[in-house]
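Trying the structure run again after the queue cleared.
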Amino acid sequence: MPDYRSVFRPKLFAGKTVLVTGGGSGLGRCTAHELAALGARVGLVGRTHAKLEAVKAELGRPDTLTHAADLRDEGQVKAMVRAALDWSGGAIDGLVNNAGGQFPAPLRDISLNGWNAVVANNMTATFLVSREVYLGAMEARGGAIVNVGADFDLGMPGMGHNGAARAGQTNFTYTASVEWAHAGVRVNSVIPGFIASSGLDRYPERAHEVLRSVKGRVPMKRHGTESEIAAAIVFLLSEAAAYITGIAVRVDGGLHNNARSSFYTVPDHDRSAPYNGFALYTPPKVLG
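Done. Tokens:
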């Protein structure tokens, strides 16, 4: 496995087991690489077995768990967590709820099936996986959960189903952080902005120009990197965040803070240097 240039100390997660959903590509793949580089035993969960196996091969860790499942289905989630507990010997120290999916559409054009699919992908799956990991391991042993969401605070015109789902996902984070604190479980969220990840290539062509040009609205004048999201996730999983729970950390280059501005335009600049510790990173084609 090529060296991952993490900012965290070596062996930070030695002896720890971390489950990463959506681990077959994009942010999940990058996060899995950083965790493995820091000594974690990583379990990869996603829909497509071949993608999970490809990441396992990249990691070069024969003991990596790969488990394909539809995380919207309660029975499949229960079976996945049982398999993970069998693999890990009953310990899941960290959980990264990264799996999700959405598509751009105005509210008037969203079918009930489309609405339900996005809510299930981005909110219900987070609840189901978290609940089963909590009941199966963390209620007795403690642990840390990080949910990867999206910024819903000002609504999400053009993707209202995703905005509603992400609002619910983050509210679940707040509630679980209180209800599960007595068990030594911390629950936090990371809210990415526009990240140059492979997930951008799944958007339809009509969205490509928006994805390319959005960096003009970002105060840092660039897209974020997968490594910058992974670093936030790793921090919240780590012992350095032992007194942090129930928060949502935006990693968006200041976009949220500029969203309400009508009287200021951020000058063009190139003063924001990106962090990319992932040797296998490939930029999405849509930004090429």
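The mean pLDDT is 95. Worth checking whether this holds up in the mutant runs.
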